[in-house]
Amino acid sequence: MNVCRIIQSRHVRIVAALTFVAVAAGCGNTPDKAKGWETLYEAYQDQQASRKSKGGSAGGEAAQKQAQSIQKAIASSKVPLKLAVLEETQRTAVLIRFAQNGPYTTWRTSSRQTVTTRNGIVTGTRGLGYDLMSSDLGTASSMITGRRSGQANRVYRHLSGENHEVPMLMRCSYSPSGSDTVQLPTGRSYSATKMSERCENDDGLKIRNTYWVTSGGAIPQSIQWISPEVGKVALQTLKE
């Protein structure tokens, strides 16, 4: 399943063909100059041309060239990559693995926005405007990666108007909701179980996160809530 198609189900209308090649050409981020990013820009231009093309064969050839360019760019990367799509603003970005601190991985865009994950679950962000300062997972992580049904508490922390961290306790339930296939822009696919996480706090705020979890506990794709202002972010693995 394509990450862009998933997001279409709510407020955002992202054209499925605009996967991670669109990142290099705009969306608010300056493309990195590392080897491979120039290829992404060329792929974006090819994709734009194919959208305007009336001929089926010409469009098909452009799409094939685009796919090859994407695969080449990903293969040239020396570090793991993720694609991020913000639900509310439609902004997209490629994130590179920037730092590892024990079980926590920090992913960074070319404009220095970051997302921190633990076992694929978002525990913090920076540079988004209304960030998730930190999150305590408790037993939620084992529920999700183990693809088990059950309940757990999570704590989200956001900044108040006075720049103080405010904890928010969420009571969450977990359940598998069927099998699915995660299809990546590279052509690689993962067989996964969709895990649903439904949470609510004392003020009646309800959120729902979705994780695609492999048999080994990896999360190649997810849709996760960040904050009331930011909304959700969709994450997809591009290179491990």
Automatic annotation (TrEMBL):
The keyword Transmembrane helix does not apply. InterPro entries: GfcB, YmcC_sf. This is Group 4 capsule polysaccharide lipoprotein GfcB/YjbF. PROSITE patterns: PROKAR_LIPOPROTEIN (PS51257). Residues 1-24 form the signal peptide. Coiled coil: none annotated. Keywords: Lipoprotein, Signal. It holds the Pfam family YjbF. It comes from Aliiruegeria haliotis. The keyword Signal applies.
